[in-house]
Design a protein that fits this description.
Largest sheet: 2 strands, antiparallel
Radius of gyration: 26 Å
Number of helices: 1
Distance between the termini: 56 Å
Number of strands: 4
Helix content: under 10%
Strand order of the largest sheet: 1-2
Order of helices and strands: HEEEE
Strand content: 5-15%
Shape: extended
Length: 112
């Protein structure tokens, strides 16, 4: 029977996303918030805007150098909302074939 040989190899440690990006050769820059920017609006000319005058509208942001975005998911089960009119908690669930999000008002079968 052959004896097992001990191998000495590199021990990998956990790295943060910034450290991994630096290791792959990406340049990391610290970004400063803009104090003034030009914001185009529909039907009007460009308007000078500051941080205090932020407009809520659809925006598309692109990540540089192929980095993956941060994501946040909301659980789909066990989510409750207290209905003051009815006086009890109602479970919420998103489905594709129901007209309401309240589980107690669902009809027949549920498709997620």
């Amino acid at each position: 029977m052959a004896k097992k040989q001990k191998t000495q190899g590199k021990v990998e440690t956990a790295m943060s996303g910034a450290e991994a990006a630096k290791k792959r050769g990406f340049k990391m820059e610290k970004l400063q918030p803009a104090t003034e920017q030009r914001v185009p609006t529909l039907g009007t000319q460009d308007v000078k805007s500051t941080i205090d005058d932020w407009q809520i509208k659809d925006r598309v942001y692109y990540l540089r150098e192929g980095l993956s975005p941060l994501t946040y998911t909301i659980k789909s089960r066990g989510l409750y909302w207290f209905d003051e009119k009815l006086g009890y908690e109602r479970e919420l669930k998103y489905t594709t074939n129901q007209k309401t999000v309240f589980v107690d008002e669902f009809n027949n079968y549920i498709l997620l």
